[in-house]
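Folds abound. Consider this:
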Amino acid sequence: MTTFSKKLGQIINNKKLGSSELVRKLNELFWSYRKNKQFIEKSIPVIKKELKHFTVVENYIKELNSIISSKNEEKLNKFLGNYSKIEIDKYEKIFSKLIEQIPRASNVITISRSGTVLNVLKLWYGKNKKLKVTVCESRPKYEGKFFAQDLIKNRIKVEFITDAMMGLFMQKVDAAIVGADSVLKNGNVINKTGSKSLALLCKEYKKPFYVVTIRSKYSNKKMFKHQKENPAEVWQKKHKNLNVQNIYFEEIEKKFITKIVTD
């Protein structure tokens, strides 16, 4: 196995990253191997197969493949080299639109680990040092724990809770902000399981529920099908009368979403 293949495998198999972060890491890998395009070309079918449920990955690979097919090396270098800067510009646009909606908010709640949410909160903290974020642990992979660490590194105050404690903290927060793995054609959002529970709680407590996402996560798909993951991640016990379920992603109907804020 080549060094490239090992690095690619580590990215693909990282279940703790949000989809935007997956693309960022893929882009960084491709940039470092831009002079060896054969590695990039061979990786495209693998990525399409393993990460097909992420719309932003699908759109990124589609554009990358088109550029590679054109055999324009200058265009490829520009695409890979400018990707991070373009993404930063998108986050700034999203933050500007979001803060217009909730200018006085300083305490928000989120779930899972979203690169878009992280970058928006970093920009927010730059404007409001009183910002506090309640982070749900996001079982079974505990992405929330890693997200909390991301926030702490950026000096943002964090209250870390279990997913089951969401209801206890709703009265303390001003709004909920989550990312999206995909936005369906009907306006519904696909995100980490637990997001819908948070949206329903926001409805009950009359708190706004915002989804922040880049446009490349918009999909032409109209329906979403749950994908069952390894049940041992939840509980390793086996018994003929026991059925352990493990589902990573769920659909949040647009009627529960205050607004989708995008670039």
Summary: Residues 3-86 form one domain. The two ends are 39 Å apart (CA to CA).
